[in-house]
Amino acid sequence: MALQISQPGADPGPGNAPVPRAKRNSFSALLNRSPNIRLAGLLAAPAGWLVLVCIAALAALLITALWTVDTFTGKVSQTWTVDNILQVVTDPVYQTITLRTIWIALAVTLIDVVIAIPISFFIAKVATARWQKLLVVAVLMPLWASYLVKAYAWRNVLAEGGLLEWLGTPVGLNSPGYSESAVILTLAYIWLPYMILPIHAGFEKVPDSLLEASSDLGAKPWNTMRLVMLPILVPSIIAGTIFTFSLSLGDYITAQIVGGTTQMLGTVVYANVGAANNLPFASAVSLIPIVIIMIYLFVVRRTGALNNL
Amino acid sequence: MSETALAAVQKPTAEVPAIRLRRLTKSFGETNAVDGVDLDIRQGEFFSMLGPSGSGKTTVLRLIAGFELPTSGTIELEGQDVSGKAPFERDVNTVFQDYALFPHMSLVDNVAYGLRVRGMGRTERRERAAEALGRVQLGKFVSRRPSQLSGGQRQRVALARALVVEPKVLLLDEPLGALDLKLRQQMQIELKELQRSLGITFIFVTHDQEEALTMSDRIGVFNNGKIAQIGTAHEIYQRPAGPFVANFVGTSNLFDPVVAGRLYGRQEQFVVRPERLSLSWDRSAAMHDGVASLPGKVTSIVYVGHATQVNVALEDGPAVVVLVGTELPEGEQLLGRDVTVSWAHRDAVWLPGEA
């Protein structure tokens, strides 16, 4: 900008020792020159881990699903067959279980969306800075407790003579007992933080000035929510649904603790791995949620939600 | 006030101020961001609120828009008390500093938004929005998203969006702050012309004194939540009401009461603008009538293109800035040189009271 001419400074400053120069380091210099070596060094370990744990395990699962079990010895026999997969897809029992599992996962997701939006809105846009931090911690807190503790806590709440019955009886409501509804209720509680966090992050990203602009232009709060907030939040909501939907789809513990006789895909897998000792069939069943999740991810990929995970 | 009363009989609406603030106060915790502001803004006026950051000018704007509610005091919009009303109940619109365009909507939907939430039909509102975009030279871009535009273009969209709903008062919150110098100067002219042709009251918040001086019919200078001075650009610059205004609007050389007493026999502060000071490169200043002069030493020289700022430390006086429009003597050592600074008595502006 302006050219400054001023009188030369007389004071050279404290100390006359020269500033030390950086030491020679030929390895760092090599990395600095060749981006490929740099990249290889960074990625080797995580890529190896990814191939080993994720891709190899998935491949093993797929291969196991194509084997069968020797009914006499109970050992896995490596004869190739698609019987397991055919049975899982065509047997009405498993079709019902698949549909029920999808229904439970959808219901859990819907309940969490409905609860999480107002909570996230309050935390991100209404609460003061101090309360924001406290509330985020409060939302995260249940995640620090064991999953089992929470499931068993709900078992008590849902039990005959439990909290829910005690609260519900005066207003004429019954506790769902140990049932499909109980599973939905418990899973909705357990996965709620996974829905609140991305939606909260989404609300944080919406500048206050957008809400003010909407109101300024004549929109009442409901219109601001519907026309400005929700469209901007869609990717965040989808990010949350990916968590709740996929976590519910694979669940087997809650179903066992509060589900009574309710069978989900996870419980079928669990039973076949354990009691029935039929690993190939368990693999075939576990392919169903994987396929469903992959279809879901493929559908939502275009909304940009995957950038919000 | 008898004049106003007489005019009110003849033209009842024209004399109702567009905005009237009375004892307006806004506190955030312990601090008063706005502290008892009284202000009348006339209809059809281009009014600038000028002040450093934290002076309360933006808070006043937000109070008028309804984004904040006053702690005490009243806001009247064309004679109607709107102090407690929500933003969507007030006939004022805002152009935001960050433009606040809806990122998920095309330009035409952005501009049509205000009409949409007021229940106008789809075809008509889109027609009007396209027309408004045409007026700000963005007619070709109706289906683009805000993210595909440059800063200056977004600025125009924000303007079109606020004007399409035909507000009584348009509020502009430092709208040119993010633009580069050339574009800013161009937008200053366009905004001023737009305001003149529409006849709408504009309230323009800025911390840039040059912007305020070039565009405004009147300026309110804010300091610490209070209005330090209200007046036309000319009044504010030529007759600052106090040391704060003198220093904030343009550069001023402030002389304390001691120097004033010695020179003029008057124990009050006065200021002289840098361009009103003249410099002679020796100690032989001609002493003639109507001119005061003081000896000093050059401490630094700053070349600013159209002129040169020479900083001079006066003997028995303050350090002053002299704006020299002519070429400096060439090939000589100017730093540390003994010089004489002089000014005409009529260029000294007396400041009432102590700072």
UniProtKB/TrEMBL annotation, chain A:
<feature type="transmembrane region" description="Helical">
    <location>
        <begin position="39"/>
        <end position="67"/>
    </location>
</feature>
<dbReference type="GO" id="GO:0055085">
    <property type="term" value="P:transmembrane transport"/>
</dbReference>
<keyword id="KW-0813">Transport</keyword>
<keyword id="KW-0472">Membrane</keyword>
<feature type="transmembrane region" description="Helical">
    <location>
        <begin position="102"/>
        <end position="122"/>
    </location>
</feature>
<protein>
    <submittedName>
        <fullName>ABC transporter permease</fullName>
    </submittedName>
</protein>
<dbReference type="Pfam" id="PF00528">
    <property type="entry name" value="BPD_transp_1"/>
</dbReference>
<feature type="transmembrane region" description="Helical">
    <location>
        <begin position="224"/>
        <end position="245"/>
    </location>
</feature>
<dbReference type="InterPro" id="IPR000515">
    <property type="entry name" value="MetI-like"/>
</dbReference>
<feature type="transmembrane region" description="Helical">
    <location>
        <begin position="279"/>
        <end position="299"/>
    </location>
</feature>
<dbReference type="InterPro" id="IPR035906">
    <property type="entry name" value="MetI-like_sf"/>
</dbReference>
<feature type="transmembrane region" description="Helical">
    <location>
        <begin position="134"/>
        <end position="154"/>
    </location>
</feature>
<dbReference type="GO" id="GO:0005886">
    <property type="term" value="C:plasma membrane"/>
</dbReference>
<feature type="transmembrane region" description="Helical">
    <location>
        <begin position="182"/>
        <end position="203"/>
    </location>
</feature>
<comment type="similarity">
    <text>Belongs to the binding-protein-dependent transport system permease family. CysTW subfamily.</text>
</comment>
<keyword id="KW-1003">Cell membrane</keyword>
<keyword id="KW-1133">Transmembrane helix</keyword>
<keyword id="KW-0812">Transmembrane</keyword>
<feature type="domain" description="ABC transmembrane type-1">
    <location>
        <begin position="98"/>
        <end position="300"/>
    </location>
</feature>
Automatic annotation (TrEMBL), chain B:
<dbReference type="Pfam" id="PF08402">
    <property type="entry name" value="TOBE_2"/>
</dbReference>
<dbReference type="GO" id="GO:0022857">
    <property type="term" value="F:transmembrane transporter activity"/>
</dbReference>
<protein>
    <submittedName>
        <fullName>ABC transporter ATP-binding protein</fullName>
    </submittedName>
</protein>
<keyword id="KW-0813">Transport</keyword>
<dbReference type="Pfam" id="PF00005">
    <property type="entry name" value="ABC_tran"/>
</dbReference>
<dbReference type="InterPro" id="IPR008995">
    <property type="entry name" value="Mo/tungstate-bd_C_term_dom"/>
</dbReference>
<keyword id="KW-0547">Nucleotide-binding</keyword>
<dbReference type="GO" id="GO:0043190">
    <property type="term" value="C:ATP-binding cassette (ABC) transporter complex"/>
</dbReference>
<dbReference type="InterPro" id="IPR027417">
    <property type="entry name" value="P-loop_NTPase"/>
</dbReference>
<dbReference type="InterPro" id="IPR017871">
    <property type="entry name" value="ABC_transporter-like_CS"/>
</dbReference>
<dbReference type="GO" id="GO:0016887">
    <property type="term" value="F:ATP hydrolysis activity"/>
</dbReference>
<feature type="domain" description="ABC transporter">
    <location>
        <begin position="19"/>
        <end position="249"/>
    </location>
</feature>
<dbReference type="InterPro" id="IPR003593">
    <property type="entry name" value="AAA+_ATPase"/>
</dbReference>
<keyword id="KW-0067">ATP-binding</keyword>
<dbReference type="GO" id="GO:0005524">
    <property type="term" value="F:ATP binding"/>
</dbReference>
<dbReference type="InterPro" id="IPR013611">
    <property type="entry name" value="Transp-assoc_OB_typ2"/>
</dbReference>
<dbReference type="InterPro" id="IPR003439">
    <property type="entry name" value="ABC_transporter-like_ATP-bd"/>
</dbReference>
<dbReference type="InterPro" id="IPR050093">
    <property type="entry name" value="ABC_SmlMolc_Importer"/>
</dbReference>
